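I am sending you the entry underneath: sequence plus fold tokens. Let me know what the token row says about the fold:
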Amino acid sequence: MSKDIEDFYQLPISERTRLLYLDGTFTFSIRYYGYKVNLYLYRDDYIEVFYNHKQDLIEKIQPLDYQHTRMKFYADQINIKSVAS
């Protein structure tokens, strides 16, 4: 993980949200349990934003975990294999 992206994760969630909205590229979203998970590309890193629609709240923003079972939901939508390597 680059220094810039490490600094990104140290910011408050409201600032990370703002930066993703302004400087990130929204890729698409999936439904995952009680969340709408938006996937963004931000400075060559894929980032997941977990939105709880019942509470109208972004609960977490984290780097895409390429080993997680959620990857099966993404695999049909975009080619991220080249980024994961």
Notes: The two ends are 13 Å apart (CA to CA).
